[in-house]
Amino acid sequence: MLAGLAILGAAIAAFGPVGMVLRMLSLPMRSPDWHVWVGTFNGVALIAVAAFPLAALLVWALARRRSAAGATSAWRRSLAEVGIVYGTVPWVWMILLPGDEGGAVVSLVPLRDLVTMDTGQVVGNLLVFAALGFFTPLRFTALASVPRILALGAACSALVETAQYVLQLSRVSSVDDVLLNATGAALAALASRPWWHTTR
Questions:
Q1: pLDDT mean over 159-186
Q2: Using a CB cutoff of 8 Å and minimum separation of 24, what contacts does 36-42 make?
Q3: How far apart are CA 158 and CA 140, in angstroms?
Q4: Residues 192, 200 contacting (CB under 8 angstroms)
Q5: pLDDT computed for residue 175 by the predictor
Q6: DSSP characters for 62-131?
Q7: Of 50, 99, 128, 135, which one is least surrounded by beta carbons within 10 A?
Q8: Measured in whole angstroms, how far is the alpha carbon of residue 46 from the centre of its chain?
Q9: 134-143 burial by CB neighbour count: b if 16+ within 10 A, else e?
């Protein structure tokens, strides 16, 4: 729960003052159109915020069930599993929404797009697989190292960028997005290192 709140707080800090974020989240509630809810950044963000109590409840239910069955590290495993899904799916959902580029654009020159990105874009890209990087080492000991999480983040990001191109979503499929997404996963893994490094 604390990690989820930290990720949400970082997103709020990245995209402006709290008042502006709250106004953005309230926009989908003004329209009954389902496309506004599932087909816009604001709608997906509102769904993610609304789903937070359900995610917390799911962690509790999974942990209780595992504890009753005598499983070890029940709370840790449950928090990690739900955290990976809850912290990653909304971001991937948002970047797979149709863009406004007028066609599929591929950018394979490293650092060319990075210099044109504003702070919000950079921080947003760092957060896409941050939950994956933070929680995966806690759940899967075979992946409990920063280089492995960096590789995992890069592979997941490359898959998403390829999907953007194949699905013709009118978005830029950029190698810089892959670099930032993978870096965000690795930095998040470093943040959770005190919890997984001593129990590998």
A1: 95
A2: 39/97, 39/98, 40/97, 41/94, 41/97
A3: 21
A4: no
A5: 96
A6: HHHHHHHTT-TTHHHHHHHHHHHHHHHHHHHHHHTS--SSSS-EEE-STTTTGGG--HHHHHHHHHTTHH
A7: 50
A8: 15
A9: bbbbbbeeeb
Tell me which residue has tokens 């702070």.
Answer: 119
- At residue 30, does pLDDT exceed 70? no
Tell me the pTM: 0.83
Q: Tell me, what's the pLDDT at 13?
A: 57
- H or E element at residue 180: helix 175-196
Q: Which range has the worst mean pLDDT, 25-29, 47-51, 95-99, 169-173?
A: 25-29
Name the token pair of 129: 């697989």
Beta bridge partners of 173: 106
- Under 8 Å between Cβ of 121 and 168: no
| pLDDT for the residue numbered 1 | 54
Residue of 197 and 132 predicted with greater confidence: 132
**Is pLDDT at 66 greater than 60 in this prediction?**
yes
Residue type, 191: A
- Residues 199 and 29: their CA atoms lie apart, in Å, by 45
The CA distance from 80 to 195, in Å, is 12
Question: What is the distance between the alpha carbons of residues 87 and 116, in angstroms, rounded to a whole number?
Answer: 26
The C-alpha atoms of residue 49 and residue 90 are separated, in whole angstroms, by: 10
